[in-house]
Amino acid sequence: MDKIWLKSYPARVPPEIDPNEFASINDILQRTFRRFTQHAAYRNLGTTLTYAQIERLSRDFAAWLQGVPGLQKGSRIALMMPNILQYPIALFGALRAGLIVVNVNPLYTARELEYQLRDSGAEAIVILENFAHVLQKVLPNTSVKLVVTTQMGDILAMPRRWLVNVAVKRFKRMVPAWHIERVVSFRTALKRGAEAPLNEPMLEHHDIAFLQYTGGTTGLPKGAVLTHGSVIANVLQISA
Q1: Whole-number Å distance between alpha carbons of 212 and 92
Q2: What local confidence, expressed as pLDDT, does residue 1 receive?
Q3: Coil, strand, or helix at residue 80?
Q4: Does 48 map to a domain?
Q5: What average pLDDT does the structure give for the chain?
Q6: 71-112 pLDDT, tens per residue?
Q7: Can you list the positions of beta strands (E) in 38-145?
């Protein structure tokens, strides 16, 4: 094949990538954590987390997940949060535990949420408590056995954490009343995970990393199967 499109590539863009440079997304994470240890990774609500802090917190969350009965490599975990610091911690922690991540639109209605949880087979969910009232309506109709709730300011240092959580709940009234039995708070999960060992599973390119739902143009949303290998290839393409 005459790859005529290569003539349009900028001079520094290589014609090929090597997906075998990384064994899994977790491999990318580990190399990044080591390379940028003290660099800022995320900033939110006046708080900055370094790559070292993200590594430690995601490790703790992964270790806790591995200790939850019924969760194992390949189990599906839903994440229903906006862009807050808890999201990358939960995301990387789930991947490091060998779970399959199902991202959920935090603005979903109860009907939309129920469909995605049932269709994906999610057995666990991490959810910002602002949306817990929606989950409460559909939880009995799903396979979800583990609910982890978090408040907006959970990862912030005191007293900012307290101020943000009180402002969101009491003054802005952004948290409708909800009641779900036997939930685990995100901070409790991190605390327990810090005291537990982590045995990161062996992951390969064919292992599934995400069930990423898209509405497409017709019909119900469908979960696109994204493997560790496909995400690695995309990351390397973007990097190139």
Answers
A1: 15
A2: 86
A3: strand
A4: yes
A5: 96
A6: 999 999 999 999 999 999 999 999 999 999 999 999 999 999
A7: 40-44, 47-50, 76-80, 100-103, 124-128
pLDDT of res. 216: 64
**Is 8 part of any domain?**
no
Contact 132, 178 (CB under 8 A): yes
Q: With beta carbons less than 8 A apart as the criterion, state whether 198 and 59 touch.
A: yes
**CATH number of the domain enclosing 200:** 3.40.50.980
- Identify the bridge partners of residue 126 per DSSP, sorted by sequence position: 79, 148
Kindly tell me if the per-residue pLDDT of 215 is higher than 90.
no
In a domain, 114, yes or no: yes
Cβ atoms within 10 Å, residue 40: 11
Distances (CA, A) of 158 to 46, 54, 60, 214: 12, 18, 20, 38
Identify whether 82 is preceded by a cis peptide bond (ω within 30 of 0).
Answer: no
The domain containing residue 234 runs over which residues?
A: 23-239
In-domain check, residue 82: yes
Q: Is 201 exposed, middle or buried (0-12, 13-18, 19+ CB in 10 A)?
A: middle
What number of other Cβ atoms are within 10 A of residue 71's Cβ? 21
Nearest Cα to 190, choosing from 95, 86, 106?
A: 86
Count: domains in the chain: 1
Closest CA to 146 of 200, 199, 202, 90: 90
**What global pTM score does this model have?**
0.94
